[in-house]
Amino acid sequence: MNAGYAFAEKLVEVEWLAENLNALGPDIRIVESNEDVLVYDTGHIPGAVHIDWRKDLQDPLIRDYISTEKFAQLCSRNGITIDTTCIFYGDKSNWWACYALWAFELFGHTKAKILNGGRDKWIKLGLPITKEKPTYEKTFYPVPPQRKDGEIRVFYDEVLSFLKTRGPLIDVRSPGEFSGELLHMPEYPQEGVLRGGHIPGAKSVPWKTAVNEDGTFKSFAELQEIYEKQAGLDPEKETIVYCRIGERSSHTWFVLKYLLGHKKVKNYDGSWTEWGNKVAAPIER
Question: Max Cα separation, the chain?
């Protein structure tokens, strides 16, 4: 079903998982990660562990990710080893599942896949859910030597330098946020950004253009039309994606890197929350 994608193996179809749920080996772990961290407790895929994008992945004090030591502990207590393949899924068309996958890859755990259609498709098809929380034997997970910040992540100063090269920036937020009319996502509360607009030279390609109504990803040909023909992205050149805090742009990062096979895609997770509040940061409207 996923024929044509550059890395089709990075996607798992809901139907396949449902058929094989009771036959999964210990080398596979299903991971749920949602925007609403309370959703997991209302029912989840049997056997799935819950990773809270804020509590589990982010430092409680500094705006950054947890240390490599904390990441190893997180994996260990969820029964994950370096050889475990993690299948991520969640709400909001897999925004936070992609964000969790991106964060795992930031620590070097690349054995990670996305459940195509996520939580919404699983429930819509009437597939089994449970409120029972699984318990797995604690594993040994070696502390990663370092995070891959330089490979799949960029910081403010790097984005500023990137502007001088006129490299492609993709703003995946809503059109209203891009124009500066809105300071936050539609129907969301104000979240503290002082200035609206977008990074100079960025192109508006909302994340939602990449998915079908059921939350599954569009075909390779459709994605190629959107990102390469319409937005003019070159698969061989570096592209930076951003949104508000990095979750929606993680979704687009996954599309570009693994479904289209672009070789140099980086996520600016500081995104508009940082840029829109940064003194003297250049802004366009």
Answer: 56
